[in-house]
Amino acid sequence: MGKKLTNKVLVIGWDAADWKVITPLIQQGKMPTLKKFMEEGTHGNIKTLDPPLSPMLWTSIATGMRADKHGITGFIEPTPDGQALRPVTTTSRKVKAIWNILNQEGYKSNVVGWWPSNPAEPINGVMVSNLFQGANKGMDEWDMPAGTVHPESKIEDMKKWRVHPHEISVSMVAPFIPKVIKDKEFRKEKRVASCVKILAHAASIHSASTNLMRTTEWDFMAVYHDAIDHFSHLAMKFHPPYRNFLKEEDYESYKGIVEAGYRFHDMMLERTLELIDDDTTVVLVSDHGFHSDHLRPIVIPKEPSGPAYEHSPYGIFVARGPGIRKGGVISGASVIDVTPTLLTLLGLPVGNDMEGKVLTACFDEPVEPEFIETWEKVDGKDGMHSSEFREDPWAAQEALQQLVDLGYIEAPGDDKMEQVEKSKRESLYYLARNYIDGKKFDEGIKLLKEIFDESKVIRYGKRLASAYLKTGQYRKCEKLIVELKEAQELRFEEYKKTRLEKDPNDPFANKDMEEPMYLEYIEGLMYLAMNKQEKALPILNKILEKVPHNFDVCSSIAQIHLARKNYDLAARHFIMALAIDEMSPIIHHGLGLSFLRQKKYDDAVDEFFRAIELNFYYPKAHYHLGEAFFHQGNHQESIEAFKVVVRLSPGTTKAHEWLEKIYRDHINDASKAEEHRNFIQKNIVGEIVVVSGLPRSGTSMMMQMLDNGGMPVMTDKLRQADDNNPKGYHEFDKVKRLHLDQSWVKDASGKAIKIVTPLLNYLPPNYRYKVIMMEREMSEIITSQQKMLGKSVRPDTLPMPLFTAFRKQQEKIDAWIESQPQVEILKVHYKDIIDDPISQAERINNFLGKELSIEEMASVVDPALYRNKSE
Amino acid sequence: MSDQDKEYKITEEGSLGLLALGDVGVEKWREVRAKSEAERKAQKDNSKNSTATTDGEETNK
């Protein structure tokens, strides 16, 4: 058992709580409890998972696992008889929640309102399920559904803490909707009724939880409030500032709902914190955020779970109490990190099968988390329902269908079965998105393909196209986009006709009823990935006009402009990206660089500082900070920044050059200048051109091009030409051992050398590198590799684990390159060389700053050797 | 600050502050409501009785 940092833990869930709403309220003194709570602890953003659907997410929070492992894949599931649908239940959860683990370890837990938690689990403590607060009947006949409370002895006691909407008075609603005070008729409005209901639900959960806090002994408690999410779905569109498509009267009536909702939660938090002792660590968390600014969608797509489009990717995380650092800020947290972090706080090991990490940065002392293989195999009384009670509802539904087919039981009505089938498909769609989000591309693609082929639902096809893009299957992606565009056009015409027949001015008769411009978005990113910036840019710009809240689009456009030296445009798009995710160090660095190149040094310094604050190990940001300080005339600060660069990335040539220059010309410290000059002379051996990429991506062809064009190349000719590479491999055998021996690298100075991608980050930092990164359709690379290895390749299948592994390697190397100031990169696509060798040879020549023979370079390209083309 | 240190004036209408107090607030509020309702009912009964008496007197006149 590890070191125990706390004895008691209280987890409070605020569904959809978002810093963008909270921060201004705190600044205005409207959430004083949360302000104090934050000051006394550590806080930060917490990233949601895709799809951002609450039952999946809250189960991920409670288990540290994604939906494919925990089994909750949506809002609904079939009833055991398969005849109808019902809200998801605890019996569908396949793994232990944290309270089950704690149960085994002898802890006493209370759980209130968690989604899903019905039927309540038989834990050592009290569980009040998520069906507790619902009220579909009047007060006199207000029953509580079966399974709402465990233990049974607590049922009557808990019942009385429910607050019925009929009890909510005008003075309670007035802070949300002041108009109700004077206008009696207005009290009957639908939105007023919804507000009343949400408030009653929140009060019910709060009353039950405060009662349990006061009257029971507990070591762990989890309380879930859905009210912020519900208030936000109800009225975020009316949240200030006013937007001109709203009716002014509606805006005036409902503009205070969201703010009042948050303030009410602050009041409830105050009371909750009064009821704990100093021995308790409190964690406040949300599962996702909620767009509250210009990113609010104007139209909610008419599709299942459409309202989730209002969710934003970052929620809140705040922790306070024993074991937690005071005044701390964390970054990079995810909802799946909560359970591993809580287990570590309580001195318990984290399951290796949990997908989240321990947020050690929020602890007040260094902690080495402990791990076990899995908690699932640890025996003991875990307080879960017995295994015969638990079942996969969809599997149960299939088994039921088999009985129907065999004639053993009567089939439900056609409509019902169709509804169940549709819901099952939708659930698989969420599961597939969950796989893709978790980078389990093979499972995700397989599922999406199945449900798309079966249903031809365009949404499914779009996600499939996106998955093809993410796995580098550009041809498949391109082909599917064409198919989907045609289908979308046809469907839109039908849809428009039906809508406009009913209402010629129907504002919903537009193309963006589902995921606005998502297809174009994939297309734009696809061209970008294929290095076709000229095709990508107009598409991405068009998307940005219509959907200004897409982070990837903003940042991609910004990076294109930065590469093309359009610094003003780059800065504008980086700023737009930061409006969506202000916690991205790469974007802050990009913006700083755009400012630096426009000679806006003060702004540049601010941005580099922000990037470093978010990721200190970012040598390139320190490097450019040094450059910006230098231009400001702050030579001492500049020196400090460059010193950090050489500390983080020892031997970085350019940083030593800067240091030599500043000491010599500005500080008049000749000895220090000499120190750096000597360092450069002794250690910085020069520049190396590196041809890189995955095996079979065209690296040999590139080496031949350089060789033929007049560039000295470093090869030992040990590996002879063969059928796979008839013109030779142009390799240097010692490269294979680069991770063990770098002594020979000095001989590569001034030459071009081939180094496969996975070895790049073993290159010593005391050289300048110009990396030509070869890219090729991933399916072609893998097919070619498989053939080379003598493995049989079926045209319709590809080894997906290899896709995933290569993808991960590529991401790792991209991150390394991004952080290294001494590395410059040019991405070259294999097919572009085949299609137009001359212009690609020119690009390469410009990048290298050499005067190679373009014609000679191009002459080695033989389209006949382009085999293993993907379809 | 303990519960005893705070004073809340509870009205029949209640308030958000009362709901925010949780079970204690809801319980006290319901007590006040029940008491007020009982008082109103008693008043109504009294007034009914008194009207009945008056009516009777009038009828008797």
Structure description:
The complex is a heterodimer of chains A (871) and B (61). With 871 residues, chain A is α/β, with parallel strands linked by helices. In chain A, 47% of the residues lie in helices and 10% in strands. In chain A, the strands form five sheets. Chain A has a nine-stranded mixed β-sheet with strand order 7-6-5-8-1-9-12-2-13, with helices on both faces. Chain A has a four-stranded parallel β-sheet with strand order 17-16-18-19. In chain A, β16 (687-692), α28 and β17 (752-754) form a beta-alpha-beta unit. The radius of gyration of chain A is 30 Å and the shape is globular. The model of chain A has no long low-confidence stretch (mean pLDDT 88). Chain B is mainly α and 61 residues long. Helix content of chain B is 70%, strand content 0%. Chain B is built from two helices and no strands. Chain B has helices spanning 16-20, 23-60.
- Poorly predicted runs of 5 or more residues of chain A: none
The helicity of chain B comes to: over 70%
Shape verdict of chain B: rod-shaped
Beta-strand segment tally of chain B: 0
Report the major sheet of chain B: none
Secondary-structure class of chain A: alpha/beta
What is the count of DSSP helices of chain A, taking H or I runs of 4+ residues?
33
Q: Gyration radius of chain B, to the nearest Å?
A: 19 Å
Strand order of the largest sheet of chain A: 7-6-5-8-1-9-12-2-13
Query: Percent of residues of chain A in beta strands?
Result: 5-15%
What is the typical, i.e. mean, pLDDT of chain B? Answer: 78
